[in-house]
Amino acid sequence: MTNQYISENKDRFLNELIELLKIPSISADSAYKNDVLNMAKALMSNLEASGADNIELIETAGHPIVYADKIIDPNLPTVLVYGHYDVQPPDPIELWESGPFEPIIKKTDIHPEGAIFARGACDDKGQMFMQVKAFEAMWKSGDLPCNVKFLIEGEEEVGSENLEDVIKEHSERFSADVILVSDTGIMANDVPTITTGLRGLSYVEVELTGPNRDLHSGLYGGAVVNPINALAEMIANLTDENNHINIPGFYDNVEEISQEEKTLMANAPFSQKAYCDALGIKDVDGEKGYTTLERATVRPTLDVNGIWGGYTGEGAKTVIASKAFAKISMRLVPNQDYNRITDLFKSHFESMAPVGTSVVVTPHHGGEPAVTPVDSLEYKAASLAMESTFGKTPIPLRSGGSIPIVAMFERVLGIKTVLFGFGLDSDAIHSPNEHYGLFNFYKGIETIPLFYKNYTKLKSN
Length: 461
Ligand code: BES
Ligand code: MN
Ligand code: MN
What we know:
This protein is α+β, with helices and mostly antiparallel strands.
């Protein structure tokens, strides 16, 4: 019944998603505050039309949270669906082949049946919307096997800083047996995958100041520390020749993965050649002693996300800037505490500043890593669901990305999460020309109801 409902309504599902993708709900930019609110309202209307009850806009100190539920029987299990309706800024806008908020469907090599191009198509509007439509299909076809709650937030891309307070305040309302999140990916469309871990994050901004004003680089060059040169050197010295991070204490609590997980990763159908080709690079480079897949998922990292200072306009201006800046992120793995890592970074970076400069380190958001078990009932329910729709048992793999609320939910609510995402790494999330395969969108809508069914069944045994 659910499947029939999906096939009869699939075009409408896509058209509804297209309408949501037109709303520029950019959480990072206050100029879009009203669009973020409009997106929340559009989602509420959609949830209502889909059959949800108790639809509510929960205000926070930042952007609001959308809540909705369907409680069919308090004795049945409850699935809490988490997702986010906010998106990353579209910059650099000139690299988009079509407007980031003018969704269009195009075929690509990886998505021969078409993909929808727009900011948020995959991360996370398209994926979050699969959950809403899967719910609609189950409910309207009389197949909903258990209770559902929706918690769709508008601040994931800026660190979910207000979510914890809301959860603590309304912990009763968010009580559930399992959390279901579609905001991750699979390895390929013929390689179903269940994400079993996420990295944590420490994000800092650094400001290095030299002379009290910009200087003529002929009159002063060579005699005064140039903050941009110095910052570049400090950053270069954060890692050694083996791409190991030099911050004292950084690796103190890092958990090495088990031999079992190492073998699993080594056997995953990952092609380094295809990886390089897709990125237009000749070879990879990273921490010595680890494979590409390990480096990108289970090892901690340090990356400059942006660096600026001095003259960057047209032509040449001879100047030694007074200040240089950078934004630096560190991806963290289990047992690394992000507050501690931020402190370690701060004291180390301050100690590196050459004489004649001063440095200010400002922490931005952080987040805890998370690992989800593979021997649990909810993992089994997810695995069997994917097995039915893909015709293959999914591979459990950790992802390198971060969704800090996963660890927070476990800590505050004591509820485990199933990461049930259907995106591809090649979908260009956070990048120009983000897209989401129609295959993936529909595969998600088709697979999610099977999770509900399996989970309810396993839970009642
Ligand atoms: N959905 C992503 C994270 C993700 C993507 C995990 C793909 C696994 C696979 C999420 O929206 C995101 O971008 N998170 C941020 C962190 C957040 C605190 C801004 C990230 O990972 O950079
Ligand atoms: Mn996301
Ligand atoms: Mn994101």
